[in-house]
Every structure is written in structure tokens, then in C-alpha cells.
Amino acid sequence: MDKIQILIVDYGSQYTLVIGRTLRELGVRSVILPPKKAEMWLKNNTPKAVILSGSNWSVHSEGAPDLPKSLDVSGLGSKKYFVLGVCYGMQLLSHKLGGLVERPLSHREYGPAEVTVDTTHPLFKGVEEKTQVWASHGDTATKLPKDFTSIATSEGFAAMANKNNRVLGIQFHPEVAHTKEGKKIYQNFLDMSGCKKDWDPINLIHQIQKEVLDVVSLAEKKNLILGVSGGVDSTTLAAVLAPVLKEKLICVAIDTGGLREGELDELKSNTASAGVKNLVIIPAANKFIKNIGTTIDGEEKRGKFREVYKEIFEEQISKHDAEFIVQGTLATDIIESGKIGESMMIKTHHNVGLDWKVDDLHPFRNLFKYEVRELAKALKLPPAVYERNPFPGPGLFLRVVGTPVTKENIELVRSADKTVADIIKKHNIDKNISQLIVALLGINSVGVKGDERVYGHSLAVRAVQTVDFMTAKGFYFPQSVVEEITSALTKHKDIVRVFFDMTPKPPATTEFE
After folding, report:
1. Cα–Cα distance between 348 and 200 in angstroms, integer?
2. pTM greater than 0.85
3. Dist CA 374 CA 123 (whole Å)
4. Catalytic: which of 173, 350, 362, 457?
5. Residues with Cβ < 8 Å from 164, sequence gap 6 or more?
6. How confident is the model at residue 25 (pLDDT cuts 50, 70, 90)?
7. What's the rounded Cα separation, in Å, for the pair 362 and 476?
8. Separation CA 345–CA 335 (nearest Å)
């Protein structure tokens, strides 16, 4: 921890770990801590800069998180680090330092916004005077603290700096990919703070290997169970651990019945390329479908999946006399599960927060999808691994929406998924899509086939583009592709309608459930 240059104080924003991701992308390590832990950390460490994250709180709410007591927000103290408040962080600085924070109806921003910046200020060096940003706030600073000046506007104050330029605030989110020049703004802040590059994928691989080996060396039972799906995350983690754990690494995959067509074969191929020697595949389709088929509620389905998932893995832990379970959980999963810092729960993830009888390790807990892809490339895994689109653990069970999960419905979605995937691959647009979702909706409607009335299913096709899966925009298919997909899907005797969903995230999530 003594080499950490940036402290990020986590106030619960869904974007907090995206700040860390952006800094790592720029080559600088950081540590993310909630306010109370940040307070203790600052007593024993002197970073080059502190970033205060956004939040779901208002500064006026009872119980709203405060500035760490150890934090110097004068820029004049003996430690003299830089401070940058982002969204709630700026509001909190303004509120605590004598400014005014209100909720004016005319200055609530949710989504894209245009900001006019002071291009002479070092924070906005090289940034266009009018730049597109991503905002998400109801509160805003309407009066700046004494000795602060405005350095950006968007109908109101969009950024501020104190007279010595060591304490700054930004009302929007530079870390989000939709802020056009956000990375440049963070690079400017790193330059102002005197930070040096100290992070790269090879170093991270060695750090993860050492972290896991250190834990294993203290245990009596040396075996580890790694849950693998054949996807980017678990395959890359297997490739990181296989060279150092060797026969102690036991990879377990479950055929849940919710896999896509050909996915088991892909799993075997990908784990082999990762150097996995011990691969165990557990057939459990009937057990999963029986349990999940008792509800149509998305959260309850995830919970029902977790029950069977945990039961099977505990059986394998006991069978192989293992003392650890290791999983390729990402920062995105932990954020949405509300299991990190102060972030709000968006949806339950099948492998996060389970109460295991053995130690549960998540070596990728601070990484995002694009970073894991970089690790996979550094490990020289094939493109079939690092270019693979994500697929949720509960799989196709989450793509039967508003109607019971049955073998028949799963088969219908599996077939439809392959049909759409084949079409977009044929038109060479699959590389433009970060994730593809084909879902059966619980909406039956009237149609006409062969001059006869039919009453059948509706499907939804959703494709998104994203870097980190914290935000995403809908992908718009060319009209000819829309027509081809619709025609191909409605040839099925039970499918009457096809909807295309381009809703961005937020307000939607990537999956329907």
C-alpha cells in the first residue's frame, strides 16, 4: 500500500471503481476506500492526490457521508496533496467549505450534457472549450466557497478550483466513457499531482499470483476450486493461476441447462488453451430448471440459481478436499451487488456474497472487463477468449422474462440466440457489439401466418456497446439486418413478434433481469 499514489474515497457511486479503472488505464495505481477507512489510511499514508467520488446521497440528507476527518482540504497543510471532488464530491466540498448546494429544477442533469470549460486552467489543458460530458445529479453547487472560482459552466457551476489550484471539484463524471475528453481531464489531474506511471498487465499478473500463493501457503489443504464458464474472466483467471498452482487447481464447470448452443465445446477448448489440467464438468440442467421454474421474478430467479450453484460447488469442495474457492468476479459484478464500499445493490450476482464454508477468493475484484481482456492478451490466450462477448452466469434463464422457465422456453431462446448470432456474424457487425441479448418476453399476442390466426410468443433483441459495462449505449442494427432477423425468428411457428431494444445503461441494465 505504500506505493499507492491516489486515494479514492468511495461515497457509493456506481462509477467509483470506474475512476480506478481510468487511472489504471492511464498507468497509475490507486486504492478505493469508504470514508471511515480512508480516514484511517490518511493518518498513515501521504498520497499525491485524493479523489472524492460521486454518491446516491444528497449532502442535505440525514446520515449523508462526510469528508474524512484526516483529509486536508486547504491544500496548505504539511502533506500538501491535491484533492478532486467528483459530482457528490464537489457538492460535499462546496457544502463543507462555506458554499451553497441546492436542488434547482433548472440545473438537474441526467445523461449527456455540454460544458464550457476554462481552457487556460491546467485541469482542462488541451480540452475543447465546449465539450460533451456525462452528468448524473439533482443537487448542484449554486454558490462557491470563499477563495474558489468557477473553471467550467453548464447553465451553472460545472467545475471549481481554489486559489492555489490544489482543491478542485467537477460536477460531471470524467471517468465515464461518454464524457468525450474525460480521460484527458484525469491525465491533467495526474500531471498536476505529480503522479508517475506504475501499473501494467504483467505486473498485475505477478501480483495476483503472489496474492493467491501467499494465501495458499498458510493453509493445510492446498487444493483450490475455480469456477469456470469458458468466458473471458474465468478462463483468464485460470491462465493466471495454472502455472503457479499446477495440480492444486481444480476447475469446475456446471452444465446448468442455460448454456448457449455449442458452449460446452467452447468451454473445453478455452480452458485447454489456459493450461487447465483438471477440468470437472457437472451436468445439472434438471436441478436448475426445476428450482428456477418456480418463479418469474428476476431477483428471485437469481436467488434460486445461487442456491443450486452453491450446493454443487460445496459438493465439489468436499469431494476434492479443497480449502478455497476462487472465482473470476469483476468490479462490475461487485458494484451491482452492492458488495463494495458504499455502493447500492442493483441486482444479485450468482457468485458474489455467498456464505461459503471455505475461503472465497476474488483476485479480479478490482478489475473491469476491458482490463481482463488485456491480461488475456498479455498471457497470449487466443482471440476466441479475449474477444468473447460476456454471458451471465445464470445464462439463458435470465432471458426468459415474465414467463416461467421451462425446457421448451429455454430451447426456444437457445435456438433464437444462435439464429441472431449467426446473422450478425454473417454481416460482420459482431465486432461492433459488446453484448448480444435475445430474450423471450412473457407477452403473447395475435398474429397471422398462412392466412390463419396464431397466438404466440414475442422476442426481444438487444445489443449494446460499452467499454466497462458500467454504462452502455444501444446498438442500432441496419434496417436490412433488422428485417432479416425478424424474418428468420418469426419463421418459428410459436414466434409472432420481434422487438428491438436500444435503451442505454442507465436507465436500463445490460440484461433484462
Report:
1. 31
2. no
3. 29
4. 173
5. 75, 76
6. confident
7. 35
8. 7
- Of residues 458 and 387, which shows the higher confidence score? 458
Domain with CATH 3.30.300.10 in the chain: 406-501
Half-sphere CA count of 143, side-chain side, radius 13 A: 8
C-alpha distances in angstroms, 416 versus 245, 255, 501?
A: 40, 19, 16
Identify the CATH number of the domain defined by range 6-193: 3.40.50.880
Dihedral, CA of residue 242, residue 362, residue 504 and residue 375, to nearest 10: -30
Q: Identify whether 173 is a catalytic site residue.
A: yes
Among residues of the chain, what percentage have pLDDT more than 70?
Answer: 91
Catalytic residue among 25, 109, 175, 511: 175
DSSP letter (8 states) at residue 442: E
175 among known catalytic residues: yes
> Is the CA virtual torsion 192, 196, 202, 204 positive or negative?
negative
1.10.10.60, 1.10.357.10, 3.40.50.300, 3.30.300.10: CATH of 406-501: 3.30.300.10
148 in Cβ contact with 121 (< 8 Å): no
Q: Max alpha carbon distance in the chain (Å)? A: 83
Residue 351's pLDDT is what? 59
Query: 87 an active-site residue?
Result: yes
507 upstream amide cis, omega within 30 of 0? yes
Residue for grid cell 460544458: 115
* Burial of 421: CB neighbours in 10 Å, binned 0-12, 13-18, 19+: middle
* pLDDT value at residue 352: 60
Q: Determine the 3-state secondary structure of 490 from DSSP.
A: helix
Q: Which residue type, as a one-letter code, is found at position 148?
A: F
CATH of 201-386, one of 3.40.50.720, 3.40.50.620, 3.30.160.270, 1.10.1240.10: 3.40.50.620
Helices then strands, each counted (H, E), the chain: 14, 21
Other beta carbons within 10 Å of 231: 22
Contact 43, 69 (CB under 8 A): no
CA distance 136 to 438: 29
Q: How far apart are CA 378 and CA 498, in angstroms?
A: 41
> Which residues have a Cβ under 8 Å from the Cβ of 203 and sit 6 or more positions away?
none
Helix, strand or coil for residue 232?
helix
Q: By mean pLDDT, which of 117-121, 277-281, 392-396 is the weakest? A: 392-396
Name the active-site residue from 87, 95, 336, 513: 87
Instruction: Output the average pLDDT for the chain.
Output: 88
- Here the cell at position 321 is 478436499
